[in-house]
Amino acid sequence: MPLRLLFLLAWFAPSALAQTSVFGRVTDFDTGAALPGIYLLLTNADHTEADRYTWADDEGRYALTGIADGRWLLQAVWRTEGLRFTLTTPPFTLGDAPLLLHFALPTDEKAWLGPSDPRPFQAKDLRIITGITTEGRITNDEGVALPGSTTLIQTVTTGTLEGRVWKNNRPVDGATVLLSPTGQTAQTAASGHFLFDDLAPGHYHLQISQDADTLDLSDLDIRKGLNELHIEF
C-alpha cells in the first residue's frame, strides 16, 4: 500500500508576518520522563494580543505557533487532589527567532507544599500553589526555592523535525525513519511519533518504511525552529 505525504509545517518567523513560535517539552524533574497533559498558557504581558494555549502531548511536547512579536509569559498548569499548581515564567520578548522553552516539574507535588499546606484537601477547598521561574530556578511567591527547573533558549539556530505516521486515522507503531545525509534513524512510537533534533537548516532526504511499504521524501527543507511532518499510509 503506497505511502502518502500529507503536509509539512515549518514553524518559524516569516518576516512579513512578524510571527514566530514557542515550543518545548515538559518532563519529570527527577526522572526525565515525559509529562503528558500539562496545560500551557501563553499570555501577552502587555495585553495587546489574545491568550494562546495547548496541552503537552504523549511525549510531553508542545508547540504554540503563529505568535506575534512582543512580550509574553508562559504558564504550566496542573492539578491534583484539590490543588492547582501554576508555574509562570517572567516576561520574555519574541521577535524573529523561535523560542525553545523546556519545563522540568516535580511529579511529587508535596515538594511544593510547605508546613502550612497540609494535605489532603477537598475539591471545594481548591488551593493554588504558585511557582515563578527566574534564570532556570523555580521559587514560590516568597522567594523560597522549589524543586524543578526551566531551560529557555532565546535564539534557536537549529531545526527540530517532529513527525507522526498514520494509517487509516490510526498512528503507526514501529515504522523505521531514516534521515539523510546525517544517517540518523528513529522508530515511530505507539503514537506514530518520531523526532530528530538539533538539525542544521538545509535540505534533507527522509525515508519511512514498514514491512513492504517505503516512502522517499527528497528535498525536505528544514528551517530553524520546529518543523512538523505528517505522513499517512
* SSE class: mainly beta
Q: Which topology of the largest domain does CATH recognise? A: Immunoglobulin-like
Instruction: State the fourth-level CATH superfamily of the largest domain.
Output: Transthyretin/hydroxyisourate hydrolase domain
Distance between the termini: 7 Å
The CATH class label of the largest domain is: Mainly Beta
Strand and helix map with partners:
Layout lengths: L3 E8 L7 E10 L10 E6 L7 E4 L5 E8 L1 E11 L2 E6 L3 E3 L4 E7 L21 E8 L2 E3 L5 E2 L2 E5 L5 E9 L2 E2 L4 E5 L3 E4 L5 E7 L2 E9 L2 E10 L2 E8 L1
Parallel strand pairs: 2-9, 7-10, 14-21
Antiparallel strand pairs: 1-21, 2-5, 3-4, 3-6, 6-7, 6-8, 9-13, 10-11, 11-12, 14-15, 14-18, 16-17, 16-19, 19-20
Describe the protein in words:
The protein has 233 residues and is mainly β. Helix content is 0%, strand content 58%. The strands form 4 sheets. Strands 3, 4, 6, 7, 8, 10, 11 and 12 form an 8-stranded mixed beta sheet that branches. The chain is globular. The N and C termini lie close together (7 Å). The N terminus is likely disordered.
Q: Could you name the key traits of this structure?
A:
21 strands, five-stranded mixed beta sheet, globular, eight-stranded mixed beta sheet, Immunoglobulin-like, about 230 residues, 2 domains, disordered N terminus, mainly beta, about 60% strand, single chain
Brief summary of the model shown:
The protein is an all-beta fold. 0% of the residues lie in helices and 58% in strands.
